[in-house]
Design goal:
The chain is α/β, with parallel strands linked by helices and 368 residues long. The chain contains 12 helices and 17 strands. It binds beta-D-galactofuranose. It comes from Streptomyces lichenis.
Amino acid sequence: MNFTSHRRHPLARPAAAASLALAVALTAAGCAKSEDDADGAAKPSATGADADAGQKVAAPKPGGKGCTLAAYGGDTLDLKGATVGFSQSEKEANPFRIAETRSIKDEAAKRGVKLLTANAQSQFSKQISDVQDLLAKGADVLVIAPLNSDGWEPVLRAAAARKVPIVTIDRQINADPCKDYVSFIASDFVEQGKRAADQMIEATGGKGKVAILLGAAGNNVTTERTKGFKDRIAEKAPELEIVFEQTGDFAREKGQQVTEQLIQSQPGINGVYAENDEMGLGAVGALKGAGKKPGDVKIITIDGTRNAVQGVVDGWIQGVIESNPRFGPLAFRTLDAFTRGEEVPQEIVIEDGAYDADNAEQDLGRAY
Ligand code: GZL
């Protein structure tokens, strides 16, 4: 796919125009077959045929800067002959991580690119050593799915010293765009929290007591999904009271344990907002163990995994906001453009679909 209509040197174009041109190109190429519904929330399209559909790029934020190889330093590179290092953060027990890694591997194979992969098993110190190992093995470019937002300095210095560009996917690292990393591709997590609140308000009628199963600490996803949810509840449903919040570490077992404590301490709880599906499914397990029936406690989760969307079909879960992990096509398109000397947006935000009782059954094939 051609990112630009002409091959002038990236510096020949004003940054904003170049960045917009690429963002528009990425949007045009956004290969999800999502159908926007009446309220504009992109709902994933139906069939299994779309199960591997990629990500749809949201309209670029005004004023976003662009990053160029000329400014970063280093030589142009044909990605096809290069070695790409991919650092995955969490163990692949979570379907989000399985689908994310699958997407990177599939795109590398499709492009005939040599791919080195590492999985930090949810240990940040291991992710730092994994990335240093990928550099030592000769990675020419890096794709990193960060576990944490802070603590990346050693890796950033090592990559910069070798002029190895980094694209981060999913979670944000606190570093300098265009200098420490050349593009960051992710969902809008605050918006996800707001949309989860909208589903919770609808499910509870905007009244009662709700609990939050927080994600793991130390990353922007937990912070932003919590902020979005709380802000929206305050704005639209002042009679919905948040009476409990505790981390389930994005894990199913911990989500179940925390929900068991919740049921003891708040027997009249009306709703549970789980900041990812794995914790939401843990909450379902706890409710079943307590003899509850589907719908007794309203559950809203974020990710869009197959089991959670099936939970919507079965009535245990009332809504799922998608967080699309299929970063492969966008990550490689961005790296390819950057290493050819084109300008790339420093941040690329993707659109996510949603599932509720109206579309869960027909759209189950889109879940991962
Ligand atoms: C969100 C991602 C989160 C998922 C969880 O993009 O960082 O991490 O929502 C995963 O399932 O643990």
